[in-house]
């Protein structure tokens, strides 16, 4: 983390921890953990949890573990493990030598299960999955005891060992906690602890064919690692009694305190790995790192900085009530950050040729362009000026309105860092009537962008030299969904709200020559257009590809306001 990060304000979790420290509850220790399941890439919701867990550890002189919660062999793999590690590092956090895997605890967990059986606190149940569901009851009706609940300890031990030995098919038996089928909390109605799954695990291979479930694994992993504060999202509030039950019944030395906070929900996107996987698999995006994805890999490729994501997490804070945060707030944080750190350069996305009739044919000038208007320490680069230029197609109008202050027949504009030019003629395509070339004259007295006679020019436009600029592909990204809450309706397919215009690819853009050696991932402000970043996957020195991170201003706010006015 950099020293410039704002100091987190005191939230209810930090209050609890500060109080525990005052009371010397864990001999002054603070140990947290971030426990992702390696079944997908991390998204910005995970960033909230990472900033919270690693942040708290750093603030209170504690440590934070990275633990892979990898107990479900389906869908977990090494690619996800590696992506998660690199995303946490990119975000600016370091787990040191505290990298753990729940799968490393399989032996220990198995022995804990045996202990529960021996203590008469767990039994092998041979109801089918469907029957177990029926016996469980509902929110308003108590459940019913399984007929296998009264099996003897010996029989349970024997069956559980045979489950482990691979003697049974998937789904024929499970190990359940013996708690209370009439509990008002459904999680406490003899929850399943282990199930049979004949499937290789990406780390333990074929060693196991029974796998522990989340509620059994998670609390014990926390305990094994000596976690003091087990911070998780609100949907686990009703699992807390089970978390405590397992640790109490096993009488472990370390009993961490589970604390729940509200997960991050964001408008105009989805933050659920199951849904993100669907977008990838059905080809709505090119992959987990598609710049439209709310994944950290996607946001990084889009051009967002880790500082801006940390700043966002800081700004939203931590609360106990669920809400939906406006995507505009993420965009605001990214813009604020890029505004400070992105060098300004010139690029023309949709080029229109401009010939300066009175500029000598073979003349070339190097003009000075500072990289940042407010930060001279960023230095400057030379911008090459010549007789034939490109300007943005929509910076010229043949029949302009009064309020159009850019180039038009007979009108004068300032070329950024260069000269005033005045449009004297246009060349049109004979067939389509489209303007294909604009002829101008320039005023040699206005070098640098101001005139000695002080005459007013209202518009300043950006440009590149035709002969010196470089070709580039530019990908214009927009929000992935057209509606604020794509998963708002029950039982409706969220993919129908995917924004069909979330990507526009421009293949004939031109960028200034200083970008010839721009490194993959580097970020710029293209003057007047927005923030752009060199694509880290597809860009190369000879074939530059830029991703638009964001426009300079929030065009969605304008659209939303217009819609509000209309209705
Ligand atoms: P998803 O719903 O996307 O599948 P998950 O909770 O199953 O998420 P995990 O890999 O288990 O994904 O998450 C690791 C940690 O990140 C958990 O502690 C979880 O509480 C936290 N987390 C996941 N999503 C969010 C979110 N939207 N906001 C805050 N924390 C989150
Ligand atoms: Mg999970």
So what's the overall shape?
Answer: elongated
Instruction: Report the sheet with the most strands, covering strand number, pairing sense and barrel closure.
Output: 7 strands, mixed
Q: Care to count the β-strands?
A: 27
How much helical structure, as a percent, in the residues? 25-40%
Q: Treating each run of at least 4 consecutive H or I residues as one helix, how many helices?
A: 13
What small ligands are held by the chains? Answer: adenosine-5'-triphosphate, magnesium ion
Order of strands across the main sheet:
12-25-26-27-23-24-13
Oligomer: single chain
Give the termini separation.
46 Å
Average pLDDT, all residues: 95
User: Beta-sheet strand percentage?
Assistant: 15-25%
Question: How would you classify the helix and strand content by structural class?
Answer: alpha/beta
What is the CA-atom radius of gyration, in angstroms?
31 Å
Uncertain runs are none
3D structure, described in words:
With 567 residues, the protein is α/β, with parallel strands linked by helices. The chain is built from 13 helices and 27 strands. The strands form seven sheets. A seven-stranded mixed β-sheet has the order 12-25-26-27-23-24-13, covered by helices on one side. A seven-stranded mixed β-sheet has the order 21-18-19-20-14-17-22, with no helix packed on it. Helix 2 (44-59) crosses helix 11 (306-316), helix 7 (214-224) packs across helix 8 (240-250) and helix 11 packs across helix 12 (327-341). It is elongated and about 100 Å long. The protein starts with 11 loop residues before the first helix and ends with a helix. Adenosine-5'-triphosphate binds at residues 35-37, 45-46, 48-49, 69, 232-233, 263-264, 271-274.
